[in-house]
Every structure is written in structure tokens, then in C-alpha cells.
Amino acid sequence: MRISTQVFFQRNTESVLTKQTDLSQQNIHLSTQKRVIHGSDDAVAISTIQRLKQDLSVGEQYIKNGELGETANALEETSLAQVTNILQRTRELLVTAGNETYNAENREAIAKELEGLREELMGVANTKDGNSQYIFAGFEVDTQPFQKNEFGTVDYHGDSGDRAYKVGPGVFVTGNDSGSSVFTDIAEGNGTFVSEGNIKNTGSGVIDEASVIDSKAANGFLSEDYTIAITEPAPGADPEYSVYGLKETTVTGKADVKITKVDLNDANIANVNPANTFPDINSDITIEFVATAVPTEFELRINGQSSLPAVYDSANTTAQEITIDGISVEVDGLPAAADQYTLTKYVAPTLYTEGQSIEFNGIKTELKGKVDDLDNFTLRQSETKDIFATMQDSIDALRMPGEDDVSKAQREMRLDMARHQIDNTMTNVSGVRTSVGARMRTIDNQRESTQDFNLTTQKTLSNLEDLDMASAISDFKLQMSLLEVTQQTFVQMQSLSLFKLI
After folding, report:
1. Number of H helices, E strands in the chain
2. Do 357 and 364 contact (CB within 8 A), yes or no?
3. Dihedral of alpha carbons 80, 84, 86, 90, sign
4. Is the C or the N end of the chain the one with fewer CB within 10 Å?
């Protein structure tokens, strides 16, 4: 076979270039210390390597998310610790204010300190993070959550959103609690009832916090507001108490309705007073609103007895009291025509003894002190109240004038209610702090789990793509030797010629 000079040079050149390419690829593997760089290096391993790298990337993101969540929760924990300190000081002051030796000047000093604590609490509630975002504003992070309105009360301008961080597969950790869940949505009283005395009481009696002592018996009765009415059967006679319940029957309006007085000595009381006590028949009567010719005015009817010519005017923004035949009803808000309430007598007139417990429908409370004719006390359903309003109520109660027994009783009941509300807030804040601690623990656990997973993944990845340096260096030297041999052979064969034999 004849080999032309051109073919000879072409084949040898290709051989040298091939060896140089192999040596270059081997050098790349050595410099990166990776066995698999391209799909052609190991078609089976490359897909697994890509998947493992993606898993590592996701794991690193989980760790970064955890760090963000940890920072957010740590800031909230610090803020809640400040809130707890403020509330503890507030409660100490309210307990101190109950000292009977304190005069108006002493109470004013406490009121001023409470004002300072209220402002301090607002500052904490409006805490910002490192990005100048409000931590207690829910999702409205750029809006100051707690702001005073023109009436001096505090409004919440955030929402109930909770920002979450994904710190593991399917694991989300909350990074903040909304201001509504920490500062505003605080249950009143014992969470079921709020005990109050009528501001118009002339006696010095106070009512204790109510409690449910028989949940089975109370079932079905907790949706009512109760009035404990005091009556003297005759001038100078020992006072008696009776208990009435008021509940919604058919209500579409938005009015607050409560019984403020029951005068059993009224000449016409039989027209509006239930004849018997529950569960006997005729133990309840109906209170209803009837539309008049004026759109904003309503006639009130108790057991069919009309309030006319007196009417309730919803255009008047203050609470109004209407009396019909010895029963007084206070209305505030906007009722609707045909709204109906049921008034039920649960306890008939019973001799009042100071400190004696009053029990009905599985509910228990207690009256203390001197009570007068037509005094009344209420157990209304618990709603929610913000801590700033509670602190302001405390300040207002401390500034109530008067050193007589009636003034002291009113002040004592309001301060006692405020103390209960402070306790409720502290319990709520404590629960939130517990939640924050649990979230930080979750972040720690997920970080450790992710780091362990990443370590295992790194080992698997290393086994698949890392280069065996000893073997690679040996192969590199072999490739280099082959290239040198090829080059030398090319040179020697190039010098072969028949002309040299002539």
C-alpha cells in the first residue's frame, strides 16, 4: 500500500492533536479535582450529581430562611420581654392604688406614671426591625400599627397577617405575631363574663368576678347578659336581690341593650315584670323595637307596654335610658325595627346578705358592701379589649373624684376590672412568648437536620464526582508519555527516505 506524503503528515498530525486533547482534558480534571465535569464523563452519574447539587442549594436556602426567621423572632422576644416588664409595673401600681390610705394626690401620682407606661408600651408596640419595617403590623409592615386618634384612644392600623419562613421540607415558621393578637384581642373579665356595677348606684356595694361552677348547668345560658337588681320591699327594710337574664331573640340591628334598673315598688311593675321564675311558664317577657314615622327614632315596648311618647333616637350618639313601668333599659347604637330580646327572671327577690354567694344557671358571683334600693350590677358577656384602653380606664378610675363610700366602691370595681384585664394581657403575652420560643427551637432543629442532610449529600456527591488524584496523576503522566512517543515517532518517520540510501 502506498502512503502519500500528505496522508502521512495528516495522520501523524491528527494523532498528535488527539493526544494533546486527551492530555488537556486530563489536566482540566486535575485542576478541578472532579472526575465528572461533562455529561460525556459519566452519563449515568451526571443526572444524580445535578439532583444532589439542587438538593444542596435548597438546603442552603432553608438555612438562610431560618437565619431570617431567627432574627425576626429574637427581636419579637426582646420586645415582648419589654412588654412584660411594663405590664408587671402597671399591675404593681394598680395593686398599690387599692390602698385605702391613698388620697387623690397619691392616686394622681400613680395616674401620671401609668400615662408614661402607656406611652412606653406604644413605643414597643411600634417597634421596627433592621429594614425599618414594623414587626407588629402583620403584613402592613410599612404602616405604623398603633396610632392615637383625635379622641386620644389608640387605633390598630395593621392586619392579622403572620409572615412565615420555610425552614425545611413542608416546615414553615412564623416570623412575627400581629399587633391584634398581642395587644388588642384580649378577652375581658374571666373570658366568659365581665362584672360591673351601675355608675348610678348610690350604695357602696361591689360585685365579685363571676365564675362558671357547673359547666353542664351553664350550657345554653352563657349567651345572656345578667342583671342583679336590688330592691327594698319597704322604706328601711332589708334589701333584696333578684336576677334577670337578657338575650337576643331576633336581632338584625347593631345596638347594645342592657337592663339598668328594676323597680319592684313601681305601681305598674306587674305589667312588665315576669310573673314567675325560670323554668316555670311566664318566667320571661319580650322587649322589642318598633319603627316610628321618624327613620332614626324607635318606640320601645316591654311586654307590650309602650315607651311613647319617649323614643330612642339613634341619631344621638350617646347611650339613652328609657323606663317603662319600673324597668329601665339602656340602648346604645343602631337597632333595627322588629329587633326582639327576651328578659327572663332567674332568681326571685331574695334577702341580701353581704358576702353571700349568688348562684344561678351554673354561674356564681358575690356582692360585698352596703347596697341601696335600685342599685344594680351586671354580668355581661365577655368581649375583647386592647391593653391601651385598659390602661386608660385605670388612669380615668384613679382620677375619679370623691372619698365617700360610693365613690370608693365605683373606683374599686373599675380598678379591679383593670387588674383582671392586665392579668389577661400578661397571660396572653406569656403565651405568645412561649410560641416564639417554640418557633426558635423549631428553627434550631431544622437547621441541624438540614446541615446533617447536606453533609450526607456532600459525601454522596463527592463519591460520584470527585477525582482519585493518585490515579489521575498516573493517567496524566501516561498521557504525557504517549504524546511524547507520538511526537518522537512522527519526527523519526518523517526523516525516512530512499534518497538517503543512494
Report:
1. 8, 22
2. yes
3. positive
4. N
